[in-house]
Amino acid sequence: MKPHPRRSLTPIPDEQGAEIRQVPAVESLGVAIGHFVCRPHSRRWNEDNFIRRGHVLAFPRRSLEIAQAGHRRVVAGPGQVMLYNRDQIYRRRLLDPRGDDCFFVGVPDRYAAAAIRERDPTVDEHPRRPFRYPRTRLSARGMLTLRTLIRTAWSSPVDRLRLEELLVQLLTEVTSTLPPGRDPTPTAPTRESTRKRHRELADTLERTLASRFHEPIGLEEIADAADASPFHAARVFRGQTGMSLHTYRTRLRLYAAAARLLDDRPRLADLAVDLGFASHSHFCDAFTHHFGCPPSGFRSRGRV
């Protein structure tokens, strides 16, 4: 059977200078799927940004900082999902000199509320703002589901049932990594100043890795960037994120590779070097272990 031809993307005008292109055939389903690029010279880096159409899941391919109104500033990068409610106001800050590049999925109200309800039974009290956290981790299974959803949306003709089921599956994967329903802002005063310092240190370490994950830097250099001792940096980062610095950097590299493989055809050996892996075999082993298939298989099945 011949593969479906790639569906063209429709440019969406943006007065703030971003490049937004989305699949026109899925709009009738109340779903928006597309590609967003914000270059360093765009006005969006110096102005408020707005989510205009429904709730949005953004899957960054480059690192940047996002500050949603009502939340602290966080690092957005490969391996994460940014969660935006309808009418969300936010600001962006440059980390990668190339700007912002992400896939996005606009989600209808009914889908967002249903997905969140299992984690937060109070969602019906705030249906227009189902997402209480600005970001969460993207699991390996979630990345594979995103790959399949994009490929399905790009196909012609679009299988509506297949697309809707994949959207439900993606939302399930994304929301499963959220904490259970509770206020993300700690209210207990006990040791609040210590928690705040630890959050800030982890944020600084995260920014360093997000902008330099392809470099062969060690713990001491990473800690120096945050003006912390290596021991303290490693301990606090694990306590705040549940991951070691090494694991977090490897995740960034792997998800950056997966994003490249979605629409580029890089030589795998070159990709391994670009992203900081010790060798082509090390890259392939790490990729296969995390995603369950080798880079070549991911590329052949996921290309859009």
Report the helical percentage.
Answer: 40-55%
What is the oligomeric state here? single chain
Per the CATH scheme, the topology name of the largest domain is Jelly Rolls
The major beta sheet can be summarized as:
7 strands, antiparallel
> Structural class, from helix and strand content?
alpha+beta
Order of helices and strands: EEEEEEEEEEHEHHHHHHHHH
The termini sit apart by 17 Å
Spatial strand order of the main sheet: 1-2-3-10-5-8-11
| Rg on CA atoms, Å | 19 Å
Q: Which CATH architecture of the largest domain would you pick?
A: Sandwich
Strand percentage = 15-25%
Number of helices: 10
Which consecutive residue ranges, at least 5 long each, have pLDDT under 50?
Answer: 1-6, 183-190
Mean pLDDT: 87
Mass-distribution shape: globular
The first-level CATH class of the largest domain is given as Mainly Beta
Q: What name goes with the CATH superfamily of the largest domain? A: Regulatory protein AraC
Number of domains: 3
